[in-house]
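pasting for the record
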Amino acid sequence: MRSAVLAGLVLLAGCDRTASVPVVEATSDAATVLASQVAEVTAKPSSLVVPPTLSVLPRHAFGTEPFWSFEIRPDTLRYSTPEVMDIELKANLEQKDGIFRFTAVLQGKPIVLKIEAGECSDGMSDNLYPYKAEFTWRGKTERGCAKLT
């Protein structure tokens, strides 16, 4: 019984970095003391917040008003708008601090497509996406979202 309670406490302490495990003398009351401490730790809401990260290359970035989209590959971007369909661009990719940054040239002008982790709304639907996107071209920056599929 004591071993099971102690194992439970160790597992819970590993999940909650703010929990401290006090030293309890091995007495007949040790199991009761540990059981009450386990109950106390599990009753507290976890304060552990895992920030979003971006370690996998998203496959699609898009914006609304104006509408634009990119199909993304490591060295190629396929750009589309309602007026311009499927222009393939040779792109350079940098990844630093969890941010993907693509640079390319579109119609003779440099572009930058930046994607980072963070909740994003497309502004037109109730859909939420896990990544934010910024598309800069011809001195304008358009904001949008990105997703893995």
